Amino acid sequence: MIVTTINIASELTKFLADINNLAVKNGIKLYLVGGFIRDLLLGRASERCDLDFVLEGDAIKFAGQVSEALGWKIHKFSDFLTAKLEPEIENCPVREIDFAAARTENYPRPGALPVVKPGKLSEDWKRRDFTVNTLMIAVDDFLRLGERSARTLLCERIIDPCSGIADLENKIVRVLHPRSFIDDPTRIFRACRYSVKINGQIEAGTVDLIESAVLSDALDTVSEQRKLNEIKKILIDQDTVEIISLLYRLGVFRKFYLFEEDKFYQLIEALDYLPTDSAGHIDKLRVELGLMLFYYSMNYALRDQRFIQLGVGKKKTKFFSKIVNSHLSDGKMSKDKIEELIKLL
Questions:
Q1: How far apart are CA 225 and CA 317, in angstroms?
Q2: Distance (Å, rounded) from C-alpha 253 to C-alpha 322?
């Protein structure tokens, strides 16, 4: 639901102020973009959030300055004009920070990683995936709102070039342009994740574009590692079952992951038992168990080959085969059986 009042933790406000002060000292205008704003409007800002910043200029250089000031680990991606920061302290209000230069993108071929060039803020939104992710706000404007403010005040200060707020209110995921899923077919996975995340639906025209991309084998143009990364993101999501089911209905798992229909429904039942609390290594455990269940659900004759193609590796695939053959041969799923599998991981 769309909230009427925006609440921001004092620790996060101070954190943002410190980063913005550093930006101001360097003559940089800093903007928050994407998921953080979307989640604020939905009233879903978590205690530990991810922050995405965009700026006109050298984002990697500024990220280095922030890294030095905070004592955080930095990962630089020069080809994409971006950098990622990860904290090395506990109890931090932020899980990770992405800094990106405002840029334009060109896809040399379908499914290829984009070639990026520095651009203007007014151009940057055009490269994004969905309207709900084009929202941005200047950090200094955001900080003037305080820790509690009316949603209308936030909306007045948001830059919204594609009516993303309206789509968010109507719970719609809408793509920006017709070639989006051809240029980057992994957006199919993200469309499903976002639609479940906002408790909404994918816009009808966007569904048509997804189905057309699937039928034209667009996902074959993307590396197996990139597809595996998207699957892992889904497995650590608390809405795994809903996302997987939606992808199945759109034909993704039937066509590209060779799921047998009867076993797919067993997979859905089993995924519902994925652990939600596991002493700090929950994400890794959900991924390992989820991949094992994927292996079980695939076409028996082809699953070893398919898993190795996905980049899981021969050793891990052999391990999954051993566990599946010894513990899931009866084809029955239960919470007790999933707990038994967890002990083997």
A1: 15
A2: 23
